[in-house]
Design goal:
The structure holds two protein chains of two kinds. Chain A has nine helices and no strands. Chain A has helices at residues 2-6, 9-50, 54-69, 72-91, 104-130, 133-141, 146-176, 188-199, 202-231. Chain B has helices spanning 44-51, 78-85, 103-113, 119-132, 148-160, 178-193, 205-211, 229-234, 239-248, and strands spanning 4-15, 18-29, 33-37, 59-64, 67-68, 88-91, 166-170, 197-201, 214-219, 222-227. The longest helix of chain B has 16 residues, at 178-193. The chains are: A mainly alpha, B alpha/beta. Chain A binds chain B through residues 132, 134-135, 137-146, 148, 152-153, 156-157, 160, 233-235, and chain B through 52, 54, 78-79, 82-83, 85-86, 88-90, 92, 94, 96-100, 109-110, 113-115, 142-144, 155, 158-159, 162.
């Protein structure tokens, strides 16, 4: 009872919302950059896995197992604290004064990109495989080379098949940007933590934080649903 | 100018250890219409697909209008094979239209990407061939909005728009409802009358008799018998041919 009386949502809302608004740009930017990188990586991993190069295939499978077998948080921390050190050590073999650093944001984007790229590669791969083989043959018969048939005929159809799933992964990535707090990116969680520890408005702050994520992801989920319906028409 | 459009020399094709085509020789003259018939699994589709190298022969050669896909013992050159394929149109049993494109976009795509035509020129050619197959009114429909017969006619227009020297048809009407077969056969018949070189695999014996200059009967991966349609159907020489004709005519 006592606790409830002390709740002060209006103060928390008044003070925390502008702080969160400032962090919104970082959430959107890291999602946009991270997802673009993931799409790029995912497509090339998928194509590598479909190709007939045995060694490339094995290397990619090992990469996938590593990424899927470790937590995203660990990967982000590794990307921020360990990877620059390793690159620095290697660089110093040539130039003793060499030093490599990654900004927290860059490390976060690369970490998210690699992690999601691995998951997306499986989505893209199965979408490509699910396109009717006759499509590829029709393109070849018209004079397309293998590569042209893949990029001009198969991948556009695969993208349609995979698009709704991409949408769900974007929503997941928005929520996963909260992990960037652990590598000092000043996104929503880190800002909320700071505010809550100063004001002790713990319940209020984290409730507002949860609402902020909902405000971001609910409209997107709706867009995904509409997209799903529209794309189903001509496949 | 040579008189020969397609020249197949000692063609063999195996899948693993399973030899499907066992040494086929065939010459198709310019303007000639050759119909291939034979029981299921005899290798008709495989043979047709070897004619445009969709299936790479295990040995033997295929020449189109004097050009080899690959000379004997020569390494395959993907660009060359792709370029030579543009000279031969192929129509598939299951249409294989690109579902994300409208009818006219289907007919334009390869003209633009492969033939490097301008959009306007491609559109003009596409309209011409869609009109030819009687689909001017449905140009802007997606494949999913067209009947099977209409889809197959778009597929024929798509192949023709590349202005090929020869056309291959692999059971172009087998996936169609009976009432839609006629409209597709009419288009093919018209094409035949215009002098297009064609190799057709079909189960429509009446149609075969009508358009073919020559019937080829395949069984077990070899050409068992060939001849002029009248002669072939009324007076078959081989036992296997007789048995097959008896079966399909009843
Ligand atoms: N890609 C492939 N891999 C393995 N075997 C194949 C492949 N393609 C065809 N075959 C085999 O080759 C044989 C001949 O097939 P093909 O499709 O050429 O026969 P067909 O004469 O066209 O028969 P149908 O009249 O049923 O279409 C079949 O036994 C088939 O299983
Ligand atoms: Mg067949």
């Amino acid at each position: 009872m006592n606790l409830l009386e002390k709740l002060d949502f209006s103060t928390a809302f008044r003070e925390l919302s502008p702080i969160l608004m400032e962090g919104l740009g970082i959430v959107l930017a890291s999602t946009l950059c991270g997802f673009s990188l993931a799409l790029l990586l995912g497509t090339f991993i998928a194509l590598g896995r479909i190709s007939k190069y045995f060694l490339l295939n094995k290397v990619l499978v090992v990469l996938l197992e590593i990424v899927r077998g470790t937590p995203l948080l660990v990967q982000l921390v590794y990307m921020y604290y360990v990877v620059p050190l390793i690159i620095t050590l290697i660089g110093q073999l040539w130039d003793p004064s060499y030093r490599f650093t990654l900004s927290p944001f860059m490390a976060g984007v690369i970490g998210l990109g690699i992690n999601y790229g691995c998951y997306l590669s499986e989505v893209i791969r199965s979408a490509i495989i699910s396109v009717d083989k006759g499509q590829f043959e029709a393109a070849l018969a018209l004079g397309y080379t293998n590569r042209q048939a893949m990029w001009l005929i198969i991948i556009p159809q695969a993208v349609r098949i995979a698009l709704p799933t991409f949408g769900n992964y974007i929503i997941m990535m928005i929520k996963d940007t909260s992990l960037l707090a652990f590598i000092t990116v000043s996104e929503l969680l880190l800002r909320t933590q700071a505010y809550a520890s100063q004001t002790f408005l713990t319940i209020e702050s984290y409730t507002i934080l949860a609402l902020a994520y909902l405000v971001l992801s609910l409209p997107l989920a709706q867009i995904v649903r509409i997209m799903e319906k529209r794309l189903k028409r001509h496949v | 100018m040579c008189e020969t459009m397609i020249e197949v020399c000692n063609l063999r094709k195996s899948f693993g250890t399973n030899e499907i085509l066992k040494g086929i020789n065939l010459t198709v003259k310019k303007g000639e219409k050759v119909v291939i018939i034979g029981p299921s699994g005899s290798g008709k589709s495989t043979f047709l697909r070897c004619l445009n190298f969709l299936e790479i022969p295990t040995s033997g050669t295929v020449k189109i209008d004097g050009h080899y896909f690959a000379k004997p013992n020569e390494k395959l050159n993907e660009k060359h094979i792709a370029a030579l394929r543009t000279e031969i149109g192929m129509v598939f049993q299951r249409f294989n239209l690109f579902p994300t494109m409208t009818a006219i976009e289907n007919v334009m795509a390869a003209q633009i990407k492969i033939r490097k035509k301008s959009k306007e020129a491609a559109r003009e050619t596409a309209e011409k061939y869609l009109k030819k197959v009687g689909l001017s009114e449905r140009m802007h429909y997606y494949p999913s909005q067209l009947s099977g017969g209409q889809q197959q006619r778009v597929a024929i227009a798509r192949a023709l728009a590349m202005e090929p020297k020869a056309m291959l048809f692999d059971e172009a009407t087998s996936a169609l409802d009976p009432e839609l077969v006629g409209e597709v056969l009419n288009v093919i018949r018209e094409l035949a009358d215009e002098g297009m070189t064609m190799v057709l695999v079909t189960h429509e014996m009446k149609f075969a008799k009508e358009v073919a200059d020559r019937i080829i009967f395949m069984d077990g991966g070899v050409i068992v018998e060939e001849g002029h349609p009248q002669e072939f159907f009324s007076n078959p020489k081989e036992e296997r041919t007789k048995a097959f004709i008896k079966k399909v005519e009843h």
